[in-house]
């Protein structure tokens, strides 16, 4: 290993092996482990009410989905306005199992990890299929092709009686080694599960970006013809990117289905797709930690606006302020970020990190 | 057979509305390469301003139509100056998301007014009984709407082809540096493009509002519904917008006329345009009339 265990003054990698390490220094690793431990332990020490636990679970699911979106839009540069539809495909995979074999069948309740992975694979299959136009289409035309997929998905769900015409399809309670997960522990249990999924997939992306394929993604984003000339296959790279995004979205969808114990159409609309895009942008496109910041920021903003409009609602009776304030603040945040900090919150994180590293010097 | 012709007529009516709504997007895209997703909100704003001027202030509808066009002209200019000017040269995703965010802001502002939640309709100023011609009927509002639409589209095409400002807009879309060097103010052209888009949005809003009634949800949905139309037409062609608009209108009317209710299908008019769009894009990736851009590494 390198002599420079703090790695504060420069990156002295001399082999590819070193460069591919997940943690460059032992300090990095111990800080990260400590942080993870805190994430896993805090809900046991400070129990939260179910309402707030649900919000946190929601944020984590959004993180899973946004990681996928960031892969396809941030790293591969392909605009996808249909990400909620992929999430929906994951959720409706679970739901269609529930419809055919009953929502308390042992496969649903006991083998839920298998179901989650299966939903991810179905999502990946659809992602690859929808990615096929990316072989020919570019830029805006591709964005609208993904939008078309979103619209077709919404119509299919609303139209087919197999999917209950978009009404809620219930999903049974799951079992853990200790028995059935009751109403009280439900959100806490899923907090741990989703957190584990986030950590696993986060490591997955982090490693993926250091492989040949990860570098292909960035090369294709920056200039696909140049990438082609250098021996990469831009078409396949793009289709794979969509498939990977579909996998992440499918997993997120299955988690959503289990968390809410039901699948309804309104969680997978165009509006949600735009929400995911907004999270990716506010977090920082093309950065891994941006996928964590974005959902936290947007969901927290949503909650804050809801509470604020509840307070303000006392002064303006007969008017639902939330319907007006929510889109307003949402739009304002997107616009402000794009105008003043297009690199997202991840950039603030980078600035803070380099500041603390160099303190007390300026540079 | 008269059912068929009825569908053709209503398809052309719907299609020409689409064409008018698509015109605003094409105008903006043609000069500044920005896809304006907030166009639906501008359409709604135009319609509501006209309604407010007609009913609440009491101006005759024709003058309030003109007045709202002037107001949205300046709204468009303001939007470009405040939001889009900073984003010249940014990647496409940023620009799309800014217009989405802008649409969201306008949504919020409109929801604060009574227009956001309640339904209104323009006072009738044309004869109510429809014109019947051999089993095919068309209402006066629709007929006048279509005529105004084609007049506007013709006017805009002329403006682009012949007038100095239009030619400078085309020049900017072709080559920004080149047009700067011959003395065209590129920012001014961008502002003007947004302003004319706002103007066309108000016109579209008034016509749509007269035909379908004033409901915020249907009006701002036009911003999304019109996207397959512009993509099918090829984003930077006014002729493409007209042809694609009428194709989409016909498809929609035929789908809901012949498919809905048979084989348990429902609401096919909303989804079929997207399916057909996907198929056409497979063969013509730049739409029907879009320019094939030659890319160089």
Q: What is the chain-wise order of helices and strands of chain A?
A: HHHHHHHEEEHHHHEHHHH
Mean pLDDT of chain A: 83
Low-confidence segments of chain B, given as residue ranges, are none
In whole angstroms, the N-to-C terminal distance of chain A is 26 Å
* Count of individual beta strands of chain A: 4
Please identify the oligomeric state.
heterodimer
Tally of strands of chain B = 2
Given the helix and strand composition of chain A, which structural class is it? mainly alpha
Widest beta sheet: strand line-up of chain A: 1-4
| Distance from first to last alpha carbon of chain B | 55 Å
What composes the largest sheet of chain B?
2 strands, antiparallel
- Number of helical stretches of at least 4 residues of chain A: 15
Shape field of chain B: globular
Number of helices of chain B: 11
Beta-strand content estimate of chain A: under 5%
How do the strands line up in the largest sheet of chain B? 1-2
**Could you say how many structural domains of chain B there are in total?**
1
- Fraction of residues of chain A in helices? 55-70%
Which structural category fits the helices and strands of chain B?
mainly alpha
Q: Radius of gyration of chain A, rounded? A: 21 Å
Structure description:
The complex is a heterodimer of chains A (363) and B (297). With 363 residues, chain A is mainly alpha-helical. Chain A has 15 helices and four strands. Chain A has a domain at 48-269. In chain A, 69% of the residues lie in helices and 2% in strands. In chain A, the strands form two sheets. Chain A has a two-stranded antiparallel sheet. Chain A has a two-stranded antiparallel ribbon with strand order 2-3. In chain A, helix 3 (50-75) packs parallel to helix 8 (186-208), helix 3 packs antiparallel against helix 11 and helix 3 packs across helix 12 (270-283). Chain B has one domain (20-121, 131-236). Chain B has a two-stranded antiparallel ribbon with strand order 1-2.
């Amino acid at each position: 290993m390198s002599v420079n265990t703090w790695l504060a003054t420069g990156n002295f990698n001399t082999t590819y092996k070193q460069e591919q390490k997940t943690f460059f220094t032992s300090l990095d690793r111990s800080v990260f482990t400590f942080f993870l431990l805190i994430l896993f332990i805090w809900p046991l020490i400070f129990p939260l009410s179910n309402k707030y636990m649900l919000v946190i679970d929601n944020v984590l699911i959004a993180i899973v989905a946004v990681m996928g979106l960031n892969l396809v839009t941030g790293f591969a540069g392909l605009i996808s306005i249909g990400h909620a539809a992929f999430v929906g495909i994951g959720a409706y995979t679970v739901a269609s199992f529930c419809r055919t074999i009953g929502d308390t069948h042992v496969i649903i309740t006991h083998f839920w990890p298998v179901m989650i992975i299966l939903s991810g694979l179905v999502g990946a299959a659809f992602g690859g299929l929808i990615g096929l136009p990316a072989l020919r289409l570019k830029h805006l035309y591709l964005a609208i092709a993904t939008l078309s997929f979103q619209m077709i998905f919404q119509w299919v769900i609303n139209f087919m009686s197999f999917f209950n015409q978009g009404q809620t399809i219930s999903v049974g309670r799951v079992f853990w080694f200790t028995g059935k997960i009751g109403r009280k522990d439900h959100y806490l249990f899923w907090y741990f599960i989703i957190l584990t999924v986030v950590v696993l997939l986060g490591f997955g992306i982090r490693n993926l970006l250091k492989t040949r394929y990860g570098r292909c993604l960035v090369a294709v984003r920056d200039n696909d013809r140049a990438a082609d000339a250098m021996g990469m296959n831009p078409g396949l790279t793009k289709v794979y990117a969509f498939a990977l995004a579909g996998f992440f979205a499918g997993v997120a969808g299955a988690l959503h289905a289990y968390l809410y114990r039901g699948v309804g159409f309104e969680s997978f609309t165009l509006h949600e797709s735009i929400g995911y895009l907004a999270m990716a942008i506010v977090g920082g496109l093309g950065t891994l930690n941006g996928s964590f910041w974005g959902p936290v920021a947007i969901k927290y903003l949503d909650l804050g606006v809801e509470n604020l409009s509840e307070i303000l609602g006392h002064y303006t009776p007969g008017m639902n302020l939330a319907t007006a304030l929510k889109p307003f603040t949402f739009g304002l945040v997107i616009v402000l970020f794009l105008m003043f900090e297009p690199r997202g919150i991840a950039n603030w994180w980078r600035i803070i990190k380099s500041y603390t590293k160099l303190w007390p010097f300026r540079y | 057979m008269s059912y068929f012709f009825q569908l053709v007529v209503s398809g052309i009516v719907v299609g020409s509305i689409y064409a008018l709504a698509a015109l605003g997007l094409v105008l903006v895209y043609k000069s500044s390469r920005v896809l304006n997703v907030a166009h639906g909100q501008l359409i709604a704003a135009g319609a509501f301003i006209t309604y407010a001027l007609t009913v609440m202030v009491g101006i005759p509808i024709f003058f309030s139509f003109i007045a709202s066009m002037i107001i949205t002209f300046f709204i468009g200019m303001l939007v470009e100056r405040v939001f889009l000017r900073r984003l010249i040269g940014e990647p496409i995703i940023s620009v799309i998301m800014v217009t989405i965010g802008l649409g969201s802001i306008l949504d919020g502002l409109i929801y604060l007014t009574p227009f956001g939640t309640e339904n209104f309709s323009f006072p009738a100023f044309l004869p109510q009984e429809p014109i019947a011609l051999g089993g095919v009927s068309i209402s006066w509002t629709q007929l006048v709407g279509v005529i105004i639409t084609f007049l506007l589209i013709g006017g805009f095409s002329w403006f682009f082809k012949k007038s100095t400002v239009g030619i400078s807009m085309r020049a900017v879309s072709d080559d920004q540096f080149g047009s700067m060097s011959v003395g065209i103010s590129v920012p001014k052209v961008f502002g003007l493009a947004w302003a004319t888009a706002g103007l066309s949005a108000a016109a579209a809003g008034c016509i749509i509002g007269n035909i379908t009634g004033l409901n915020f949800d249907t009006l701002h949905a036009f911003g999304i519904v019109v996207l397959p139309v512009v993509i099918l037409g090829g984003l930077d062609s006014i002729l493409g917008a007209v042809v694609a608009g009428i194709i989409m209108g016909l498809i929609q009317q035929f789908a809901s006329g012949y498919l809905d209710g048979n084989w348990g299908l429902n609401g096919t008019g909303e989804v079929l345009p997207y399916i057909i769009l996907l198929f056409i894009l497979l063969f013509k990736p730049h739409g029907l009339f879009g320019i094939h851009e030659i890319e160089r590494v």
